[in-house]
Amino acid sequence: MLQGHANIVDFIALTEGVTGRKKLQKMIYIAKKLELPFQEKYEFHIYGPYSQELAVRIEELCDMGFLAEALEDKGSYIQYTYAVTDEGHEFRSALGAQTGDEKLAAALNERSSRFLELTATLLYFEDLSREECVEKLHIVKGKLNFTDEEIDEAFSFIDSLQTMKKLP
User: Which top-level group of life is the source organism from (predicted)?
Assistant: First the structure.
């Protein structure tokens, strides 16, 4: 059980902090699809793949003092930022968590939550052909009006992450 928590702390430590709950959800989902050691179950939700288990674990890690959650009022919404505390770094070291490399974590963290939502949604439908996947995307995410260029960029990003994951 605690190893799953440590993997989350480790991943956030590799990113040096994540801004946005939705972004964190998508980053972990994409990392899981790249076979990083995350056990959380995901279901399709309004913003794409979502894990209630991950949301609970993040809350638990904050309650235990391993993650710091900062809230910033943006007027029409609250933005959350997550960072690993000193206690979190000790916890991470004690359990020897290693979820992946910094390049992959950084590549995910530098993208917008909108782009990660697109990417995660495409990965969610990866069992479909590319054409069917795009068709499904337009059905479930029609209001976001993803362009062909954004969709092509997301497919290229997925390819680059898979290549990055294979490199030593």
Answer: Bacteria
